[in-house]
Amino acid sequence: MASAEEIARAADRKDIRDRWLLSAPALIIILVAATGPLLIVLVYSFLTSAAYGGVEWKFSPEAWVSVFLERDIFDDTLSLADANITIFWRSIKLALMTTVVTLALGFPTAYFMATRSEKTRDLWLFLITIPFWTNLLIRTFAVLQIIRNEGIINTLLMKAGIISAPIQILFTDTAILIGMAYVYLPLMVLPIYASMEKLDFRLVEAGYDLYASRWQVLRRIILPLVKPGVIAGSILVFIPAIGAYVTPSILGGGKNMMISNFIELQFGQAHNWPLGSALAITVMVIVMIALLVYVRNTGAASGERRG
Amino acid sequence: MPEKPDRNAIEVRGVRKVFGTGENAVAALATVSVSIRENEFFTLLGPSGCGKTTLLRLIAGFDYPSAGEILLYGDDIAPQPPFRRPVNTVFQSYALFPHMTVAENIGFGLEMLNKPKAEVKARVAEMLRLVRMEQLANRRTSQISGGQQQRVALARALAPQPKVLLLDEPLSALDYKLRKDMQIELKRLQGETGITFIFVTHDQEEALTMSDRIAVMSAGRILQVGAPRDIYDRPADRFVADFIGESNFLKGDVTGTDGGRATVKLSSGTEIRASLPEGFSPSGSVTVVVRPEHAQLAAADGGAALQGTVENVVYLGTDTHFHLRLDDGVPFIVRRQNARGGADSFAAGSRAGVVIGGDAAQVLRD
Amino acid sequence: MAKPFSIRHQPGFTAIAALCFFALYLPILVLVVYAFNAASSTAEWGGLSLKWFQSAAQNTQVIDATVRSFQIAATAAVIATIAATMAALATTRTPPYPGLTFKYAAINQPLMVPEIVTAVALLIFFSRIKIFTGYSGLGYLIAAHTAFCIPFAYLPIRARLENMDLTLERAAADLYATPWRAFRRVTLPLLWPGILAGLMLAFVISLDDVVITEFVKSGGQDTLPTYMLGQIRRGITPEINAISTAFLLLSVAIVTLFFFVSRKRD
After folding, report:
1. Do C177 and B95 touch (CB under 8 A)?
2. What are the residues whose beta carbons fall under 8 Å from the beta carbon of B82, sequence distance 6 or more?
3. Do residue A147 and residue A171 come from a single domain?
4. Contact A3 B67 (CB under 8 A)
5. Could you give phi then psi for residue C208, rounded to 5 degrees?
């Protein structure tokens, strides 16, 4: 007969095996239709471009060289690829600006929501959730109708006599910034609200009791306590913003490309799959760095609280 | 070897339970053996973390022992999953199914045993009557009070007529008055059903009130098993004496033993008689325990065993506690029952003697 | 009389919040209003009319894309929810075991990688499989959608499970329920709101997807969002407003339902 120890160990082993079996379908689907193909992108970025899309199975570092460098077609010398760098720079700049704008607007909004009474809080949460789950394409389209030359903003300004000709907002970087701030605002508000809701306002009372001004209470008590929510919100906005595709392609027009549109171009008219692959990997690396910063920050924050 | 009829419901033989592995391994139970008789109200008593709940969970089958055997009427049930053990549990949090009615909760076990519908219905009705909950049969468990939930949990565990009922601190969530009522109720149910109860608690009063026998546990070990009166009057060691009731500890030297008793010379020089734990014959220095209500105050210098100064008088309604400092510096408490209109005869600061009666002292095993 | 000091007040915050809520809803409102515009351009207002809803409803391309969107979303959401439920059961309410962290990482992986990267990866991968097998049906889109829906379905189910006490399953086992019956009679009914929330989340996420669909779809496999993207790029007509309005209504309905399901506490 099996000893008590063997029985206990067999039960543990069976539990772990069952847990692997249970998670197998999800893991397999994700491996086949999400994670696995990423490795193929890495392989493609080192192959030679075929003339009409696709690749030739021949190793070439050319794609990676041309991510940041340009080969002169006459003398083969390398120089910085200004066009590519401009696109990368625009993407990072716009993503950062979107983060800052949504934070500046989203923090007070989350604070406002969290300081409502228990009953109405759910209503405000609902109001912020609706745009969040509304199709991003539709929301971008809605922004387009507002800011275009015949849109409500220009019409009102002209009717009021403030301007005589419509201001060209559409198809500029500003349009992309407005659009991204609009579509990603709920992503900033929700996590900040989540940590703000847990904030113990007796601590704020204690702050005022100890002679802090409103600004000092905000700066020294509220902000440190909701910092995890602020970081989470910033990362949740920055990551989709840097890889945004729909918003720049609708509001930015053909000229003001962000990385995503540039990648699409490589797989479309430019017929340069290896370069597209290399660019895709580069975006992924940027996002991974942002995530790493996030993990280290939150890790340090929770460490502080424990220590 | 001929089999002799086994009257033990549960026999725990050399059971160990270790959580974690390697450096993180923690022994929740350090090789425990205990027998629980049929139809007994048996209590596992100890502070939190002493291993009492772990032992209960091993009997229920929610954990497997790391070593040893657990016999139910002679059969080793340690390898069996909980749903094959004819043992039911009343959980500390009750664990009533929130999506079922009171009646559905009570009938769940019988349903799982594939009993015919009519039998389930009849048995549920009987159980509802037993715990006096007939009116609330179709309520959701979230719509009834804590005390009522407690009764449902009991009825649910009793419905399949288990061979042993396990109760994991079932009264801890109730307020004082309700707890008192439920103590009596539990005792009544045990009498009526004739099922062996194994009751886990950290509350000594609860244990003393209800149990036929108590096992006092600490740090994964069973320190003493006995009837409530035995445990209280004759604690085997310092932990038991300290954990159950209040105690005075006195140091002394054994000068002689006869039968179950010893003569102990206290550090003050007086000799007193004290009972010995079973099978224990000490020599040299020992500790003697005296319960506060087993000692009496007497006039100072009147030939009492101990002399001291009253430091504090605490009036508690039913009785009064006199906190003394004995002349050799040891603290000592005497409890005296109050009579109506009686005046405090010993004020703080006054001198007093302490009389220790013939059967008041007990030598500790230490 | 002086106003009593409010500890919750911060100057300007309420104004900013009001501006945000106004700005969030104004464009949506304008979009809906213009859906009822009788004029054939969104630049002018020609009075109330339902004609753009009618023309959208008669547009076979719109109908096909809508049907396809629902086919994909329903299939992907159901498969993703089943897989996510199983995965959630396997990764919660357990002491850490070898591989647990890997599972968390793997399940959440689609959330960590920008959509465009996944889209490109699937384009490459599926284009090879298409050549290899000759199959070019909706299967590719369904597989892709299922994969990125899993983490979304997983979130509410896992949250619900983590709030569920293992004691209830222990109680069921104690009352002679085999593991399967304990799951059917106790775990599943209690987990149901989480599963429903996960299903709805997955459905909405799949229905909304543009980027991955745009790259994975074969010719003639437009979903409603990719069809709309194509139309918007070509120049806008109020028909798009009408389609958007209908789509919006559906989203709001699902969100409302989701809100109630996920808030339901028993």
Report:
1. no
2. B60, B61, B62, C170, C173, C174
3. yes
4. yes
5. -85, -15
Touching B (3+ Cβ pairs <8 A), the chains are A, C
User: Is B247 strand, coil or helix?
Assistant: coil
The third-level CATH classification (topology) of the domain covering C60-263 is MetI-like fold (1.10.3720)
For B104, nearest residue in chain C (alpha carbons):
C185
Chain B's closest residue to C187, CA to CA, is B97
Could you tell me if C180 lies within 8 Å of chain B, comparing CB atoms? no
A117–C contact, CB cutoff 8 A: no
C174 CB neighbours in chain B (<8 A) are 60-62, 82-83, 87-89, 157
> Which residues sit opposite B36 in a β-bridge?
B10
Interface probe, candidates B55, B64, B66, B70, chain A, greatest A C-beta count within 10 A? B64
Q: Does A85 lie at the interface with C, CB-CB under 8 angstroms?
A: no
DSSP3 helix / strand / coil % (chain A, rounded to 5) = 75, 5, 20
Q: What is the pLDDT of residues C214-254, one digit of tens each?
A: 999 998 999 999 999 999 988 778 899 999 999 999 988 98
Three-state SS letters, B89-121: EECCCCCCCCCCEHHHHHHHHHHHCCCCHHHHH
Whether residues A254 and A200 fall in one domain:
yes
Whether B39 and B148 share a structural domain: yes
Interchain pair B68, A2: CB under 8 A? no
Distance (Å, whole) CA A277 – CA A47: 10
| A259 CB within 8 Å of a chain C CB | yes
Spatial distance between the Cα atoms of A112 and C15, rounded to a whole number of angstroms: 9
Domain identity same for A52 and A128: no
**Domain boundary, last residue among A29, A49, A79:** A79
| B81 contacts C175? CB cut-off 8 A | no
Instruction: Based on the fold, state whether residues A17 and A87 are members of the same structural domain.
Output: no
Q: Is B46 on the interface with A (CB under 8 A)?
A: no
* C-alpha dist (Å) from residue C40 to A34, A162, C28, C32, C236: 43, 28, 20, 15, 10
From first to last of its 307 residues, chain A has per-residue pLDDT tens of 467 778 888 888 888 999 999 999 999 999 999 999 999 999 999 998 887 777 888 888 888 888 888 777 777 777 777 888 889 999 999 999 999 999 999 999 999 999 998 889 989 999 998 888 889 999 999 999 999 888 888 888 888 888 888 888 889 999 999 999 999 999 999 999 999 998 888 899 999 989 998 999 999 999 999 998 999 999 999 999 999 999 999 999 878 889 999 999 999 888 899 999 999 999 999 999 988 888 887 765 444 433 3
Cα separation values, B272 from A68, B237, B352, Å: 97, 19, 18
Q: How far apart are CA C167 and CA C178, in angstroms?
A: 15
Selection from C212, C263, C229, C241 nearest residue C73 by Cα:
C212
Nearest-Cα distance to chain C for B96, in Å, is 7
CB C186 within 8 A of CB B96: no
Closest CA to B42 of B31, B50, B32, B34: B34
Residue B160 has its nearest CB partner, among C175, C182, C190, at C175
Asked if A32 reaches chain C (Cβ–Cβ under 8 Å), the answer is yes
Residue C41: count other Cβ atoms within 10 Å of its Cβ: 14
Cβ of C116 and A243 within 8 Å? yes
Range of the domain at A54: 4-79
Is B211 inside a domain boundary? yes
Number of domains making up chain A: 2
Q: Is C168 an 8 Å CB contact of chain B?
A: yes
The predicted model scores a pTM of 0.87
- Calpha distance A116→A135 (Å, rounded): 28
AA identity, residue B318: T
- Does the beta-carbon distance from A142 to C112 stay under 8 Å? no
Quote the tokens at residue C177: 């329920």
Does A242 contact C114 at a Cβ distance shorter than 8 Å?
yes
